[in-house]
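Title: Prediction job returns without error message
Component: structure pipeline
Severity: low
Priority: P3
Assignee: unassigned

Description:
Job completed but the reporter wants confirmation the result is attached to the right record. Sequence as submitted:
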Amino acid sequence: MMKYLSLLFLGLLLVNCAKDEISKDKMSNDLEIQEYLEQNNLTATKTSSGLYYIIEREGTGAKPTSNNSVRVAYKGYFTNKSVFDQSTAAGISFPLNGVIKGWTEGITYFKVGGAGKLLIPASLGYGNSSYKGIPGGSVLIFDIELLEITK
């Protein structure tokens, strides 16, 4: 019986350590985003998920829902301004429910014709896993222009 209690205690300890590590990562990402905003004299809205967004041009069209497909022109970069990806001016089309959580949530704040920034903590991006040259735990910033809702 004592052996099982010891294993249970060890398991709970490991789970709590993993949760603490995730909390530290979120806090670190949040501080990194806040420093970026301050250094670049930007004001953003923070959502309950930890996503920050900035509407730079309001747009006049409809806002998509997370179930829509959209066409977006974008540039993705890190807080050091190093670009890791970008579309052409014509943009790319995709279903919002098929991309990272930061885009699924963030693009719904834009109207068609609108533009701005998404500042995405790792928990809403690729987490602690590296992906196509993006190091795990990275804050991602995207300049976004919502060109159209395709369906």
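Comment from assignee: result matches the submitted record. Residues 72 and 146 are 5 Å apart (CA to CA).
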